[in-house]
Amino acid sequence: MTYCVAMRLDQGLVFLSDSRTNAGVDQVSTFRKMLVFERPGDRMMVMMTAGNLAISQAVRQIISERTNDDGTSVWNAANMFDAVRLVGDAVREVHQRDAQALSDAGIEFNVSILFGGQIKGERCRLFLVYAAGNFIEAHAEGPYFQIGESKYGKPILDRVVSPTIPLDQAAKCALISMDSTLRSNISVGLPLDLLVYEANSLRVSRFSTIDTKNQYFQMIHDTWGQRLKQIFDEIPDPQWEDRTDSQLNDNGRRHASAPVRAFAPAWLDTPKKIMPSVSPLQTLAEDPMSPQAR
To answer: Which residues contact 44 (CB under 8 A, 6 or more apart)?
Structure first.
């Protein structure tokens, strides 16, 4: 599996991806999920993939090399919308070629792509491409996308990311999101690729490959865990009211905080008849009609 996150902000774009793939516990490998299309001064685009690795690699190869009949490719597309349409077309082409064979083998056609960047003459844009080749675009109310194992790193993004956040803070937030995912899911792993793009620079602004020796990421890992524990300890414990569900409120009803209880059956309160204890030997001896007594 994998985890990738991308943000479209007022100051530019942030991309972060892990590099772990696995086909079972005995087949864990490292494949980088981020691919950059760059023509300095004209365009800078980034693609990150999650899902079936063979599908992802086929799509990447087609996008990198393909030129349409009209001469259009990602290298000369007039705008980001035309470029992402080429990405969707590549996904559909691989689906048409491989989907049935994968289905026959019991394998789902599974791929998702984050594609974003800037082409000279327009603003930064970010898209999420689905396995059907269709796509959606990030906007001010939803400035980030995730693919892969997204649930563990989502809470920090929802609380922090907005279009106005500075790029360095957004990069820090992305790394914390990744650290949370690494902590909870073994299918996501180092090294990481982090790319920060400043709007209108039309080239890669900042890039780092992060491994276990990266001191900043190790600091984030240690500090984030410690601060979470510190904040947790500082939050007061629950205060329980001393009342039972038999107490009534001003309206003559039971308190709303009382649990819903099942009604005990009436027979529980009926006294049981106590029968004298008789051993099997006494029964045989006292029963003249039993065969054993004859």
So the answer is: 36, 37, 38, 117, 118, 197, 201, 202, 203, 204
How far, in Å, CA of 63 to CA of 46, rounded? 12
What are the b/e assignments for 161-199, b being 16+ CB within 10 Å?
Answer: bebebebeebbbbbbbbbbbbbeebeebbbbbbbbbbbb
Q: What is the pLDDT of residues 188-226, one digit of tens each?
A: 999 999 999 999 999 999 999 999 999 999 999 999 999
Q: Is the peptide bond before 191 cis (omega within 30 degrees of 0)?
A: yes
The crossing angle, in degrees rounded to 10, of helices 215-234 and 167-184 is 80
- 16: β partners: 5, 194
Q: Is residue 160 scored above 70 in pLDDT?
A: yes
Are the C-beta atoms of 3 and 153 separated by less than 8 Å?
yes
Q: Which among 207, 180, 213, 183 is positioned nearest to 193, based on CA atoms? A: 207
CA distance 156 to 174: 9
Structure tokens at 202: 């039309």
Homologous superfamily of 3-230: Aminohydrolase, N-terminal nucleophile (Ntn) domain (3.60.20.10)
- pLDDT category of residue 272 using cuts at 50, 70 and 90: confident
